[in-house]
Amino acid sequence: MRITRKSTILSAAGAALLLGLTACGPAGSAGPGGVDEPDEGGETATGNGPYSLEIAENPEFEEGTTMAELAEAGTIRVGTKFDQPLFGLQGPDGVPVGFDVAIAALVAAELGIAFEDIEWTEAQSAVRESFLESDQVDIVVATYTINDARKERIDFAGPYFVAGQDIIVAAGNPEGITGPEDLEGLPVCSAEGSTPAATISEEYGAELLAAGAYSDCLDPLRNGQVVAVTTDNVILSGFVDQNPGEFELLGETFTEEPYGIGLPKGDDAFRTFINDVLEEAFEDGTWARLYEETAGTVLEVPEPPSVDRY
Ligand code: GLU
Fold it and tell me: So what's the pLDDT on residue 1?
């Protein structure tokens, strides 16, 4: 397993903000459960990591396609989050776990690539497009909302999940915040380059404290530097779950955040392949099983969304 931890390029404001903040919360307590289910043949496939995915044996792809290249290389470079419980959280061994990680492992498995052969790179919110544009990763699976602005630079397969923006406050909700409208003019933390950061500052007039990662927002909320942290409900739920008694989720989403798998712009054959993999997993129950074993340990298992083959 290869792990790359890339430093994030922050704006001057973002970098200044992060000085003095502790880097991350505790890593790695939310494992996927290491479920060892037998596959259809009654055996557990070998080398398939924690998600019991059957690895395609010598899959055939048209020459010159990204699929053929990756299958031939026997590895895939995946950008994901390293600090988000339930979706992408780096464990004590350095390997991330969570639903995004499982979805990436599913794509890899269909390319004939075992979990152990995936190269994981931390992709914080602000660097996801540039990592794909500069060929630092092959795909990004990182609570990554599909939107038109991002589609000008990269393409998306999916969606494979639909989240919504929500808010956490300190336990007891000392400011009495009931929704985003109450945050006008107040200090609120979110991740630089994310859709929730833009929404809360541009649409609701909050004073944005832009962090590199959401885990960097927790101490400012604890010490009163901000009155709220905002991002997708499922990310916030992971923080609430990991820090019992500290934070409260308002529980009212006010945006729709369809999660896609980011890939280099214009690679239509690769996008079609990933969409096919997702649709098959929606239909045969693999998607639901992967969710149950990861985010579903805390959250309800939803219905799968419909793939958008734009
Ligand atoms: N889904 C949102 C986004 O892609 C927020 C989560 C994140 O920053 O990863 O911007």
Answer: 53
